[in-house]
Design a protein that fits this description.
The structure is a homodimer of 419-residue chains.
Chain A lengths: L2 H20 L4 E2 L7 H5 L30 H11 L6 E3 L4 H15 L15 E6 L3 H9 L3 E8 L2 E2 L1 H10 L3 E6 L13 H9 L9 E5 L17 H8 L5 E6 L11 E4 L2 H11 L8 H11 L2 H30 L5 E3 L8 E5 L4 H10 L2 E2 L17 E4 L6 H24 L1
Parallel strand pairs in A: 1-12, 3-4, 3-6, 6-7, 7-8
Antiparallel strand pairs in A: 2-9, 4-5, 8-9, 10-11, 11-13
């Protein structure tokens, strides 16, 4: 477009933006949390036991004991993770808590005895594929672990770079991964990426771990979404089971704040971790575990339940993606992927505009995830990534937010072009 | 008794012991856990919400959010602890987890910023009133904190000794307390002891904390059991609110493994601790908090509920105490207190016999808490303390265990006298 054409479009956009401002919107696309209809899908949980508090092995789930979970919970959720029933620990309501505990254990106590504690070293680093999940990065920052960003593409982290880094720097103790419907890009790691992650244990420092947060293992939106390769099988192939900690939960299956979380690793790691857990817990809430098994029952039961979630999420994602395509397709003002599952759409503005767009939106009552939140230390060097989370608002609000968002993107882009 | 009399009695006891051995008993008095009838008192919990998942302030308890608990849970449990509603955090199902988190935070992160982290010092110590709770001691041992035993009497820890130690050694960072129906002696700390504990913050190192595990705050067996003075009031009086962390839970009110835990301290400590918690949790299980408030409702509701527990515990404690009194009273073979609440009877053999008695009992199928478990590092210097926990077995089994126990005590004592 010529400068005159741009100026004409700018006038139109300014008018549209002012009109939005006058509507005094109050919209929020920040939180990757399930909507009210979604959590209602599991309302049967409370009361599902009908007074029967006995687990399959006779355990009274009301009382103390059982640090690593009920057998029937292990049987069900090990299938979700693709691991043996023996190699899983069922925790409380938060996989984040399990992740923090693993890092805290490796750092301050030592996965393989006190001499192996990461904290014995002066320099500690973690690889952080970007854009990524801010709560992963926050754990590292809180515990004083330096973060090194690594680029993501449609197949997952740039594995050439990851392999180069971990094989050359023993201070690198781990890597964060969200392998299926990655937060926020929505990509599914390719089979090659999964195998190369499993193989890192053969080239990295001895105490290196893959923090494999399989948060969206069953969270498909499109029926033909790609499957995730089984990292456990590849760890067995390469003899690296102890270098992988896999996490999952029912937070976005049943109740976001009252689900069941789980973790899997090698038998040696789990034995050490359970011993550590025993100092800080009398065991997880087994009553809630039993409720979950009664509600979900089997992998097929989980799949049927997740299809109900997909039916609620699908129109919300479609509304955002259609608006982006209709309004920004072929304009060069933004790039995005169309995720087939998970909770996010990752949008890249032209370089240098993410903060401007988020501010423009905030000023008219549209809350977006802060620019930079998907990068370590909140620092997006390109200032271009914005995470859109369409699950929680009503479809009408999602549509209104998407429309306001594209106006903000266009306005920022054209102002930049004219500057 | 003369040596001949002792030998005659020994023959009788050996015969009684052999007779017990032939019965192939399988009894267990080790675990301070509620009995099945006790946990059944709260069976209404599952299903009590009747589909209404909204808290009083409109919060959808199924979803994410709310790091420090529901307002109605704070209102109820702050009354149990005798603290303002604003100064409590409601956690997950385990007060042990909250205690571990506080110690971990103070040690590795710092209650008042990184410079205040205990881990910056080479030498760290904790005072451990003895006999005490093995899980408290295990936290210190796991985290490399040296433990210094301090004697207990009927009024609580020997406060002259505690004050002398904390005022002379800045490496002492805290003290463990179970102030009401102490584990295991069953004593209730006197009002003077409570005030002197609150005042420790004025004479100890700046980062000293009282770990005040009020686990049995409402767990009376006798209606006329002594009340516990309010440590919060004394901390306010002495300006030491930040030196006290008070803990409680419903583990022995509702479901031992699926209750609600809470902690109270000064506003400054809670703000720092919540910020720390935010890195490792998406918030506690609010659904379960709401269930608990619906079941227990008010302090009066809790008291009525606890009276049902007392009715189940009273005959079990009475059976043990009557057997001890009838068989060992005035023999000089043992000393014990008669607790008016809590979960334990603390028995002291003649010096040097606790391990022997526990072994004698184990050999005839009667499991007792390991001798030494109530001391740091499992080291009871007198080898005399044995913790009896009569809550879990049936009344018949409690009676049978008590009868077997006194035979073991007598046998060990007379063998010692004749040695």
């Amino acid at each position: 477009m010529s400068a005159d054409q741009l100026r004409a479009q700018l006038d139109t956009l300014e008018a549209q933006y002012r009109a939005l401002a006058e509507r005094q919107l109050s919209l929020d696309l920040t939180r990757g949390k399930p909507g009210t209809e979604q959590v209602s899908l599991s309302d049967a949980l409370d009361g599902i036991l009908e007074g029967d508090y006995r687990a399959s092995n006779g355990t009274d789930v009301r009382n103390y004991g059982g640090l690593d979970g009920l057998p029937e919970a292990k049987a069900l959720f090990s299938k979700v993770m693709g691991v043996p029933e023996s190699d899983i620990v069922i925790g409380g309501n938060s996989s984040l808590t399990l992740m923090y505990s693993v890092i805290d254990f490796a750092l301050n106590v030592g996965l393989r005895g006190a001499e192996s504690a990461w904290g014995n070293s002066d320099e500690l680093k973690f690889l952080c594929p970007v854009p990524g999940y801010d709560r992963h990065f926050a754990i590292c920052e809180h515990l004083g672990i330096e973060m090194i960003p690594v680029a993501m593409d449609a197949n997952g982290p740039d594995m050439d770079e990851v392999e180069r880094l971990v094989s050359s720097d023993p201070a690198i103790k781990g890597i964060w991964c969200v392998p299926r419907f990655s937060n926020p890009t929505g990509c599914v790691y390719s089979e090659e990426t999964v195998e190369r992650l499993a193989r890192l244990g053969t080239i990295a420092s001895d105490d290196f771990i893959v923090m494999y947060d399989n948060a969206y293992a069953v969270h498909t939106i499109d029926a033909d979404a790609p499957e995730l390769a089984n990292i456990r099988d590849y760890s067995v192939k390469h003899g690296t089971e102890s270098s992988v900690f896999q996490f999952g939960s029912t937070s976005k299956v049943t109740f976001a704040g009252a689900g069941v979380a789980f973790l899997s690793s090698s038998p040696a790691n789990l034995a050490a971790f359970k011993q550590h857990l025993g100092f800080q817990s009398i065991g997880p809430d087994k009553v809630n575990q039993l409720r979950h098994v009664k509600l979900l029952q089997s992998p097929a039961g989980i799949a049927a339940h997740m299809e109900k979630h997909a039916a609620l999420l699908r129109p919300r994602f479609a509304a955002v993606l259609a608006t982006l395509e209709n309004e920004l397709g072929d304009t060069g003002m933004g790039e995005w992927l169309s995720p087939q599952g998970g909770y996010f759409i990752s949008f890249n503005t032209r370089p240098g505009l993410a903060q401007t767009v988020v501010k423009l939106a905030a000023d008219i009552g549209v809350a977006l995830t802060p620019a930079g939140a998907t990068y370590p230390y909140g620092n997006d060097p390109e200032d271009s990534n914005i995470r859109l989370a369409p699950s929680y608002p009503s479809l009408k609000d999602v549509q209104a937010t998407a429309e306001a968002f594209v106006i903000c993107v266009k306005l920022a882009s054209i102002r930049q072009a004219l500057a």
